[in-house]
Amino acid sequence: MTSKKIKDRYVQLMGVLILVLALGRCTYDGFIKNDHSAMANEAVAPKIETSAAEEISDSTPQVQDTCSAQVQDTGSAQVHSTGSAQEQETVKGKEERRYHRIYSVSDYQVEFPDTNALQLTAARKWGVKPVASRADAEKRRKELVYVGVSPYYHVDPLQRSIPYLVPRAAILLQDIGQAFYDSLQVKGVPLHKLVVTSVLRSQEDIRKLRNYNKNATENSCHLYGTTIDICYNRYITVEDPDGPHKREVRNDSLKWILSEVLRDMRRGGRCYVKYERKQSCFHLTVR
Q: pLDDT averaged over the chain?
């Protein structure tokens, strides 16, 4: 082999070797680059996860504080709402007590139609034997109760009757007076006493009464100590002697309240009631 051929072959081999080395270098560089990228990703990932965790950890107290604040605000709102409800309930109760309406009855003649004949039947059933005179009434203390004084009603100076009733009627009068007081209070009206104009009448009283009132019946329910006349156009204001003067109330307003009380008593089976226009009273007999 000549030197020229040897030289050419040498050049070829060197070229192949250089080509192989060049290819190997490219492959090695790509591998190293990929390996470094993977290592970099692995190194960065924990940092990212750690940062995210730190951010979540840092933000958690804020969320908790916000939730706590919302709970506290909600609690405060609930307490405030409850307080407002209680205050509104109290104010509402006061308004109801202050402005409780007075309804009266639809018609006095319709609500209180009980005739003297009907009341006379009840008077004979529950009453005493007719009293002959005032002296006779004084002897009948075991059957009759003195009703001349009471905190719930006022008894007029009696000219034709005696301040006595059978116990059943005395309790009825007391209950009417108490119920009248209660009604005045819930309607915001100053207290007034009822005025009683007639109770027990003796036979002697009936005879004197007929001398100037021919319409007065001889067989009156008042003979038996079961019957009461309550005036509806006069009342006694209850006042503290040392206190301020209380406002005046129209007699019509008090009459309406009294009519409600008597209607309830009548409907409850406690008494019979007759509306007396000429005598200006409610004439009632215990049942």
A: 78
